[in-house]
Amino acid sequence: MAALVDDSGKIVLRAEQDIEDQGFEPVVESIGTVVDQVLAQMKKSEVSAAGIGAPGNVELVSGTVAYSPNLRWTDKPLGAAVARRIGLDVHVANDARCATLGEYRFGIGAGTSDFVLLTLGTGIGGGIVSNGLLAIGHGAGAGEVGHHQIRATDGFNCNCGKIGCFEAQASGTGLIRQALALEPSFPRSTLVPANTQKRGSKAIRKAAQAGDPHALAAWERFVDDLARGLANVIAFVNPEVIALGGGVSSAGDFLLTPLRPKVDTLTTMAPRGTTRIEIAQLGNDAGAIGAAEVARRGGLLAAVRA
Ligand SMILES: [Zn+2]
Description:
With 306 residues, the protein is an alpha/beta fold. It has helices at residues 24-39, 78-86, 95-106, 166-170, 172-182, 200-209, 213-237, 253-266, 286-296, 300-305, and strands at residues 2-5, 11-15, 50-54, 57-59, 64-68, 73-76, 90-94, 115-120, 124-130, 133-134, 241-245, 276-279. It folds into two domains: 2-94 and 287-305, ATPase, nucleotide binding domain (Nucleotidyltransferase, domain 5); 108-281, Nucleotidyltransferase, domain 5 (2-Layer Sandwich). The protein is globular, with a radius of gyration of 20 Å. The strands form four sheets. It has a five-stranded mixed beta sheet, with helices on both faces. Zinc ion is lined by residues 147, 158, 160, 162, 165.
């Protein structure tokens, strides 16, 4: 998606296109195409810069994607290539950090100074704001909470190579895995068809809300594992708000009502009740709004300290 975002964090224009070929050149061309579609509706001189939220580890000064397991990229100069293609200054940052910045400045995190966003999707993307500063880390790797292990001995295999990572257990994909693991206990269940996976987590969430016993059992394990990870996040940074985004979070109170007391039980050192768990407000737009904020301020390092 390309979006034109105004100074108040509102999306004014947008264009969308699915990326079918994840090779570097085709992705650069797809980005160029959607940016062209937005720029065709306005004067290019009105746009100051462009920001990109990219999955993986991003070198913040060069805009090179150092490593992206999702795209299977290593050392791809995304910022420079897109800048050449679209003729604007381009700033690149990790997509989850961008979404965190978007929610922090313009969404559910506005008004706080200690904030965490966790996007529960295919994986768990995260970002941490502490004392008003977005944590970046020495190698731009801070906030990768999806890969702390919560079930190192009895968990699912994570794409990163470890066992029982938070995102292997408590992402949308984690919910599907919980349901698959429980299949032997529900021999007549048709909840998870053989080659499910694309829309699987939504189907399981809906079935749980409708009272399907297999889905409810999976949902309960999912919520247990989510609570483990959230309690760890609270132990690390005790934010004022942890916002949950991604498809699973559209369950709203069906998720929050069982989740909050489980997190409380596991919160032992930070004062209980000092971290609120809420649903994020900006949905899929958070990343684009945050990426625009990164561009407006001249890069993620400047956006953090501004
Ligand atoms: Zn992992």
